């Protein structure tokens, strides 16, 4: 099936209120443009350089979400291009984002990345540390916490990811209930090609899909 057909099929099957992020790492700008022409309104990028290249072609025809691991020395470029950063997991990174946004008069919506499987080597904040981190981040002037994101562990079976998605949704509801000043959680970004149906059942309203749109990565 073509990129256009894949996008149409996914969009027609997503429940109302669930938005699609086309995860575009390694794809040519032309392929991303085809997805945008077919109705993708949010492009997710993991790498700044790739994003800059695609942005030159696609520009404001899509909104741009950063979904990779953001290094501090790339923040200046990231805040200039992206409309949302989904992977904030430390006060240090948040502080840098706020500082760089202040320099260009922007307020960045961010998601806090949750290490829902508590894997030592992985990015993201442990669930039990998330509320405190968000309370600290919410004091920064030029960024706004608008939700949570999780990857979950790499497991063959999407059903095996369900407990991690469920835990992240529980955390989302819990933090929402704290009514922290300046925090309004709206987005829960969970699920990829193999797991997005399970993630939606568990409460995701942003799904990040690459392979099912563009085919296997080369
Ligand atoms: C690559 C990637 C995806 C999409 O993965 P697929 O399995 O190709 O759908 C989603 N989220 C993140 C953070 C990614 O890096």
H/E element string?
Answer: HEHEHEHEHEHEHEHEH
Stretches where pLDDT is under 50 for at least 5 consecutive residues are none
The termini sit apart by: 17 Å
Q: Which topology does CATH recognise?
A: TIM Barrel
Instruction: Specify Rg, calculated over alpha carbons.
Output: 16 Å
Please write out the topology.
Blueprint: H1 3-13, E1 19-23, H2 29-37, E2 42-45, H3 48-58, E3 63-66, H4 75-81, E4 84-88, H5 91-103, E5 108-114, H6 127-137, E6 143-150, H7 162-178, E7 187-190, H8 196-201, E8 206-209, H9 211-214
Parallel strand pairs: 1-2, 1-8, 2-3, 3-4, 4-5, 5-6, 6-7
This protein binds pyridoxal-5'-phosphate.
The site of pyridoxal-5'-phosphate has 12 residues, from strand 8 and helix 9.
Architecture overview:
There is one protein chain. By secondary structure, the protein is α/β, with parallel strands linked by helices. It has a single domain (3-214), classed as Alanine racemase (TIM Barrel). Helix content is 41%, strand content 19%. The chain has 9 helices and 8 strands. It has helices spanning 3-13, 29-37, 48-58, 75-81, 91-103, 127-137, 162-178, 196-201, 211-214; strands at 19-23, 42-45, 63-66, 84-88, 108-114, 143-150, 187-190, 206-209. Strands 7-6-5-4-3-2-1-8 form an 8-stranded parallel beta sheet. Helix 4 (75-81) crosses helix 5. The chain starts with a helix and ends with a helix. Residues 23, 25, 46, 67, 151, 192-193, 208-212 line the site of pyridoxal-5'-phosphate.
């Amino acid at each position: 099936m073509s990129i256009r057909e894949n996008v149409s099929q996914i969009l027609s099957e997503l429940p109302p209120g669930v938005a699609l992020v086309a995860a575009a790492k390694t794809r040519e700008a032309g392929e991303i443009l085809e997805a945008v022409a077919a109705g993708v309104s949010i492009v997710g990028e993991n790498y700044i350089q790739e994003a800059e290249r695609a942005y030159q072609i696609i520009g404001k025809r899509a909104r741009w979400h950063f979904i990779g691991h953001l290094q501090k020395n790339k923040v200046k470029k990231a805040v200039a291009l992206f409309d949302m950063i989904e992977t904030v997991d430390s006060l240090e990174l948040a502080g840098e984002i706020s500082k760089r946004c202040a320099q260009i008069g922007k307020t960045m919506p961010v998601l806090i990345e949750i290490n829902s499987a508590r894997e030592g080597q992985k990015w993201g904040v442990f669930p039990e540390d998330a509320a405190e981190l968000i309370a600290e981040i919410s004091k920064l002037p030029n960024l706004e916490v608008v939700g949570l994101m999780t990857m979950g562990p790499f497991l063959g079976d999407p059903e095996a990811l369900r407990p991690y998605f469920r835990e992240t949704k529980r955390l989302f509801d819990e933090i929402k209930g704290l009514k922290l000043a300046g925090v309004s959680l709206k987005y829960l970004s969970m699920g990829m090609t193999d797991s997005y149906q399970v993630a939606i059942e568990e409460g995701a309203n942003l799904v990040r899909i690459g392979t099912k749109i563009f085919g296997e990565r080369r």
